[in-house]
Amino acid sequence: MANLFEGYTITSPYGWRRLGGKSDFHPGIDLVKAHKAPIYAFTGGTVLYAGMGKAGTGLNNYGNVVVLKDDNGRAQLYAHLDRVAVKIGDTIKKDELIGYQGNTGDVTGSHLHYEVREKASPLYGWSSDLVNSTLEPTAYLRDFTPQPAPVTSTNYIVKAGDTLSEIAKKYNTTVNIIKAANNISNENFIRIGQVLKIPNASNPVYYTVKSGDNLTKIANTYNTTIEKLVSMNDIKNINSLQVGQKLRVK
Ligand SMILES: [Zn+2]
């Protein structure tokens, strides 16, 4: 994957750091291009706020700040801007100009403080529990748009004495995956000479369920079907997906 922060120098990462001898949690990542350099959105979103962060709003000390609400319902903050280039209510696409690097608010020098908050309201997702209300921006952006896995498959020609479970084992896959890929309802009915499609034979792909996901969405992303997901993962109730659950999608 390309460098997420191409053109920037990371001057302070997300997480715990020592400032003046004491531990301090940095809820975002500090990025530097050049003073007044254009800042482009890392993802799309809707502008919840653009302007000077006021005390008591969850944006105090952030200076000129743009808050985007993204498709996951998170708040993304672009802080300490010299000036903003968008207004509240604007819909922003990835890589659109949103402002210029600056040193407004509580800063020691010109930089972009980029922060991802778990929630977008109230207070633009601000909580005194910085550790649990914010997300690590690099990992967040990397996962933001799930990359559909390439669809590849291998053909296998059934020989005398073959069983689906042996074939599955051979290709490091499961009987259910082969059944789903070939519309086989009864695994005892394979015949010699039959060509079986073995999807992504030895490269299973997994997806971790996120809040707001459903099987339709995941199936679309991975160019598969709900039926295949159900079958590959032995899902009993399609409405009982758990956040954090690992699903095989290929
Ligand atoms: Zn910062």
Keywords:
17% helix; binds zinc ion; eight-stranded antiparallel beta sheet; 2 domains; 250 residues; elongated; alpha+beta; three-stranded antiparallel beta sheet
Give a brief rundown of this model.
Helices cover 17% and strands 30% of the residues.
**What's the N-to-C terminus distance?**
20 Å
In total, how many beta strands? 17
Overall shape: it is elongated
Q: What ligands are attached or bound here? A: zinc ion
β-sheet strand percentage:
25-35%
Q: Averaged pLDDT, please?
A: 89
Give the H and E element order.
Answer: EEEEEEEEEEEEHEHEHHEEHHE
**Based on helices, strands and strand pairing, what is the structural class?**
alpha+beta
Fold topology:
Blueprint: E1 9-12, E2 15-19, E3 22-26, E4 28-32, E5 38-40, E6 45-52, E7 64-69, E8 75-81, E9 83-84, E10 91-92, E11 97-100, E12 112-117, H1 130-133, E13 134-135, H2 137-144, E14 153-157, H3 164-170, H4 175-182, E15 195-199, E16 206-208, H5 215-221, H6 226-233, E17 246-248
Antiparallel strand pairs: 1-4, 2-3, 4-12, 5-11, 6-7, 6-10, 7-8, 8-12, 9-11, 12-13, 14-15, 16-17
Helix pairs in contact: 3-4, 4-6
